[in-house]
Amino acid sequence: MIGRQITVTGRVQGVGFRPFIWRLAHDAGLKGHVLNDGSGVKIAAWGSQTMLDDFQRSIAQSPPTLARIEGVTATRLDAPPPADGFQIAHSVSGHISTEITPDAATCTACLADMRDPDNRRFGYLFTNCTHCGPRLSIVTGIPYDRAQTSMRTFTMCADCQREYDDPGDRRFHAQPNACAVCGPKVWLEDAQGPVASADPVAETAQRLMRGQIVAIKGIGGFHLACDATDPDAVQRLRARKNRQAKPFAIMAQDLAQIRTFCDLSDAEAELLMTPGAPIVLLRTHRPLPGVAPGLDRIGVMLPHAPLHHLLMAQVDGPLVMTSGNRSHLPQTTQNDEARGTLARIANAWLMHDRDIVNRLDDSLMRVDHGGPSILRRGRGLAPAPIALHPAFADVPPTLAMGAELKSTFCLLGNGRAIPSPHIGDLTTPQTYADFRTKIALFQNLYDIAPEVIAVDLHPDYLSTRWGARLAKETGARLVEVQHHHAHMVSCLAEHQVAPEDAQSVGLILDGTGLGTDGTIWGGEVLVGDYHNFARKAHFQPIALPGGEKAVREPWRNLVAHLIAAFGPDWVQRIAGTPMSQMLADKPTDLIGQMIAQGLNAPLASSAGRLFDAVAAALGLAFDQQYYEGQAAMELEALIGGRAPQGGYSVAVSDKGVISWAPLWTALIADLEAGVDPATIAGRFHVGLADVLAETVASVASEARTGRIVLSGGVMQNRFLLHHLTDRLRAQGLTVLRHRQLPANDGGLSLGQACIAALSPDDR
Ligand code: ZN
Ligand code: ZN
Ligand code: FE
Q1: What is the 486 CA–ligand 3 centroid distance (Å)?
Q2: pTM to 2 decimals?
Q3: What's the pLDDT tens digit per position in 359-411?
Q4: d(CA 221, CA 340)
């Protein structure tokens, strides 16, 4: 008999790893013990060489669902084996497990418990175990145990306690463990108060099928639900929520039901069924009227809490499941708040008494030809840490404040980054308050006291102001980071590119961000690394007439683009196109004056606004965008499955200014010739991909690098991203794209954190 010390690192605490090891060791007849320590899980095991080899192999082959093994190392143990079998030992004293895992969808074993009439959890809506259930959404502090969660108010019954204490049980140390005797309960209310019903879920299902809107308390917040196949109900929800066009997410019972209205690849099916249970964007073949107007894709998720499973089994078809809030407010999490804010929207409330501590919006993902990518990182994905290059092992602890509209912050310490979940628009006071609270909570959860605080260059972002204030209060060093540099480095960091060899070309296609020259940037070709960057090419700066208004009203960008391309002649140039009639009742003269005099018409090299202008030329979201990116998303959707022949040409000056007069000339000619809008949209995308690939390749060869980073919100355009990637790879270039974080401003804070953490302290 020989001894072996095995250390397993990664996400191995709070996921049922010790009981898993305990069972494996028992089955194999090994002696020894397992415990948690600061580095992960440590195992001391005695047995024959073959037994130990098999044991070690099984650890890596079949770990618990929520575990993520990063490494398994083994050394020889010379000590003699213990007398008595295999034990779960107490954790090394002084060590606190700080690992908080993301919330996880109900596992198959728990579902089986709930569906088995002989099981004591038959029909119980809060069934969970170490492989599934709420986590970050219920945590108030560390160490992660029941007293530091919203389950502290429920005392476990004797049966639950027995499971909790038994290393052989799936619920060993499952902090939210509960049953119908001791755990949370669900009920239905309407405007008259509590609804007397023996089965609130069945009653909810019936009301939904009658066309009602029901607020349903989920894992990270309330949803508003209605029958997705009932256009009247969907329209009612839109009207009451004051949400004209923004797509609604759908919950479907299972994959078979999804296939009745969406195409579903194997990779997409797999993604839907991951424990994170994100909303996945899928191509619709049978659109649900009113659910995603003007778009060819729809966001769909599967049930991820026991309550959803029971509800979906009793309704006839998919449900709209959109975030439960009034327009522009964050998702509601508290019962009282839901009764108030959702009163004019919902007919009824399906509520429960387990508090949601941390609001988590549903995560949004998609699969494209390179694999899954994330568009919004919330429930089920956060707060998984992001591993960084080893060079970050001993940088000072850092906090990065993110941007403003798709706000996230990021903590960096102990060699890894912890990006916050999606928080949202900080200009909403409730969201801003949530942002500040979550920063404090995460510093506590991860025991990180920032010595460096990174903010965007933009002095007026609320995140910048709060960061400056925190720096002042704590004495942390404040580092300002240029917006598009942060986008680029975020992607470098995700791919663990080594800081000493990070020189790359960054193609950043974005809405707006403040440049180092005081103007607004957004369509940028940068050369740089974690430390510095240079602007090598950029989109032609074009006025934003009306400033913020130009972001909301695409027709303004159309006028600005036409003036930039043709000067005062623009009116004649478009005569005879539909654009001309559409612009007839707009104050275009006034816009012309604003631009000529530079009054409230700042120049911006924005990529987002170019898409808005082209969309408006085709009549898409012409007057107003109801949500960020609407015009661009509708423009891309217009192309459909077609791949147009050839793109519009685009001019690039020797100074690297990319300008659009030739594009507009060709586009107007196409409009006059009656070319169909889908082809025009395609030619625009192809032309843009061509000129950008060419520009980037020449900048790369000049900079002697073969690494290209693609980032910025516009990179969420699937068509453009695919064409760009293909063209760049065809030239032998290496293309890095976001995988673990969004390409939009939601991913910005990681880049800020890495730049600031490596910046010299020259105080
Ligand atoms: Zn489970
Ligand atoms: Zn119980
Ligand atoms: Fe941005």
Answers
A1: 9
A2: 0.94
A3: 999 999 999 888 999 999 999 999 999 999 999 999 999 999 999 999 999 99
A4: 15
